[in-house]
From TrEMBL:
It comes from Abeliophyllum distichum. Residues 834-924 form the Histone chaperone RTT106/FACT complex subunit SPT16-like middle domain. Residues 24-191 form the FACT complex subunit SPT16 N-terminal lobe domain. This is FACT complex subunit. GO terms for biological process: DNA repair; DNA replication. Keywords: Chromosome, Coiled coil, DNA damage, DNA repair, DNA replication, Nucleus, Transcription, Transcription regulation.
Amino acid sequence: MAEKPIANGPLRKGNAGRGSEYTIDLNTFSQHLQALYTHWHQNKDELWGSANVLAIATPPPSEDLRYLKSSSLNIWLLGYEFPEMVMVFGVKNIHFLCSQRKASLLEVLKKSAKEAVGVDVVMHVKAKTDDGSTQMDAVLRAIHSQSKQGESAAPTVGYIAREVPEGKLLELWADKLKNSGFQLIDMTNGLTDLFAVKDKSEITCIKKASYLSAFVMKNFVVPKVEQVIDEEKKVTHSSLTDDTEKALLSPVKIGVKLKADNVEICYPPIFQSGGKFDLRLGASSNDEYLYYDSASVIICALGSRYSSYCSNVARTYFIDADGAQSRAYEVLLKAHEAAILALKPGNLFSAVYQAALSVVKRDAPELVPNLTKYAGTGIGLEFREPGMSLNARNERVLKSGMVFNVSLGFQNLQTNTSSPKSQNFSLALADTVIVTDDGSNVATSLSSKYLKDVSYSLKEDEEEEEEELPKLKVESNIKNTSFSKATLRSDNGEISKEELRKQHQAELAHQKNAETARRLAGVGSGTGDEHTNVRSASELISYKSVNEIPPPRGMMIQVDQKNDTILLPIYGSMVPFHVSTLKTVSSQQDTNRNCFIRIIFNVPGTPSNESNFLKNQGAIYLKEVSFRSKDPRHTSEVVQLIKTLRRNFITRESEKAERATLVSQEKLVLAVNKYKPIRLLNLWVRPVFGGRGRKLSGTLEAHVNGLRYSTSRPDERVDIMFVNIKHAFFQPAEKEMITLLHFHLHNHIMVGNKKTKDVQFYVEVMDMVQTIRGGKRSAYDPDEIEEEQRERERKNKINVDFQNFVNRVNDLWGQPRFRGLHLEFDQPLRELGFHGVPHKASTFLVPTSSCLVELIETPFLVITLSEVEIVNLERIGLGQKNFDMAIVFKDFKRNVMRIDSIPSASVDSIKEWLDTTDIKYYESRLNMNWPAVLKTITDDPQAFIDNGGWEFLNLEATDSDSEESSEDTDQGYDPSDAESDSYSEDDDDDDSESESLVESEDEEENSEEDSEEEEGKTWEELEREASKADKEKGEEPDSEDERRRKMKAFGKSRAGPSSAASKRPKF
């Protein structure tokens, strides 16, 4: 939408004036130089003005925002922008007039230029104190000598006429060129056509820039505007521009893995609302507040650059849109789609605009005067490529590889509203589109533009609130009169904490359902399954030739550990078998003292890699072979060697497979010289290193870009890069035996031969094992008191050392280069902790400011709260000693995390913690089958959204519905006697027992035992009651055996959760 590019210097993609820090990609230079000369010679008369020589002068660095053809040619050809440099391309020579530093960097081009197009590169070095006049004369003389002998006309020199010379060097060059007698001709059209078709590397850069632009629009701009509207803030357009620009320039902060050094903005992001709209390319955001009343329109546009290649996206958002606005937008959307579909190789540029215009004429002819006069422009190294406009008069032909900013809009439209700021509105849509062989590809499709995704309604929420308010008042009055003692309000009318929490949870439920609906609407196919690249048996070769087989040492089994091979004597020859082909090897001895070695191989039909056998379906396989020996000692040695070889091979291959899945990381830059690393001594690490030797403590050091832990053994070393740290924790020893530093990482690393995302360094503050003496020690024993004092001092000293290390590393992370990583040591809050079973054993889980962690017992638990969708508290009910917590993540492909057996006494503190961290929680009486629930949601997201989202977990809503239905059906019902009352109470007890079932068998048995204990009556008491009831009914008492059988059956019916009420015996 706007043409406000960044400055042309210092150099984009680096400043080439600094010498050896920069290298030119010679392959790209050769390809592009060849493309330049080919295009120039083939289109010399048509596009290059019959120029014999091309002269390009790059101006000095400037703070002004602009796009220049000379700068674009520098980047396209050399990869960098060289300010204050003159390039002259001739048939036989290429002349560079520049400083000494630039010349030293350009020296590498000589060989490539000669091989690519057969020209010589000539350097004209200008000293700092020199004005370059002498060098310019030499260049002009070379141009004269290059012209053909006998030609009377002066050579024609192509130059960029639109660029005004800046600086003394370029002004002097322009004067000399003008007075040289050469015929000057503008070559802008030739450069435009040369840059129009992009190669694969250029397309890749544009796709990355487009992804960043669309990602920021979807995941930053839209949530930011929604937050402003929801909280009714007053925010200016210019402040939104500044925030969005910061997000674009820091892609890692918003979750886009692009290097910030390669990212720039095409123009300052644009926000327009309040009836003042400008769809011209020079538009900008004003300082007025964002206007979001009814029938208001908000236009957002932004563009980013990656490696100097541009992208653009623009969207229009509606607040309570009326019919005229919705209809106009639907027409604009159809026209925009028609323009994109018309971008096919072979079509004319004008056909794109005509396709959009025909849609408007057909569906809304009255809007034709308001339609913009073009459908977009070419985009690439320049935000707007001259001569590449998609208007009705451009007769250029579309080609595969061209890229366009397809931009359409309606301006100066009117609607009937009471607010003057909403009466005048405009609409705009823009996407970056790549022309392919088959049609076109929208590179910014990540940001949705459909009407349902850009429309917001505030009226419906207000009307629903107004309709619900009277009902809530009536219900509250009824409850206050009937159950005044059970209300949640205090005597003075203040709202209790529980009521405030419920209100906040209701707001969170609305926000969470809306957020989930938006996320499910944009769910893609995902990244697919991750497969481990493991070498198959067919890729494992023992020997490449017969000559490599070691000489036989008699007809005996040989083990070649170097090549992971065993050689077996078969029919007088030593036959090699790779150890991977072995399934088992064993030895046994018979009664005649004969020893046998039995070797079984992997064959088709055995549980191994079947793909190996499919490759050789016609082969003959050896299944088993046995050897006899009279020497039992030799037999056992051979079997042991083969088993050891096989075990080492499997371990080595599994470790290779683990390392193959690791993400490559940068190398650690050590702190040397005056920058001494920050050290913490005598630490132990978890997971531990492999090996059978004695475990050693090590040192943790903080270097320039990461941490290094090392012991005295050279192979025991762990490097943790700062960019790979997701969370860092410091937990001092309070009631624990260790003080620790824990790092939870983004990507796995190898610690020894273990692949892990969690690395922990710790120190034991006291001895884990104490000597137990025969006699009991007195509490006033001086030795005991002194020992306790030493332990306290040791613990305090260790905690202080760790705290000092943490403070110094936090200061290091506070430097500007690390601020984008948002790193800081987090400390668990013990007062919010609770016991639970996240894996197999009960542990103490502790919340932090951003996570829920358990860092003492292994396996460790680190749950990032920002990744949590909802929390469901399960088996919540009266009489329950504990409950479970199910944590559902925003990524529905992740398994639901269960924390079982949490004491019921912790439920209120957990609810308070979840509420303060803005996490929506639900309560249920049963454990949910979460794999089936998530599968249902992902299979039909729309049905999940239509049915109220997560509200199916709302226990209070279902209870209120059931209460209302029971009140309607049971009106006028009066219990007849006490027997029916007790009977109904028993039913309720049975229902609660049946609903509190858990999935594991152990918990079922525990619940049965608990329920039997809670009944409170022994077998003898029940037997006496049964006998008494029989006597009252006049029946003969049963025999002892019959009574025992009945009482046993009765006890099972009371304890069993599935027993029916009709089968209960009555007394």
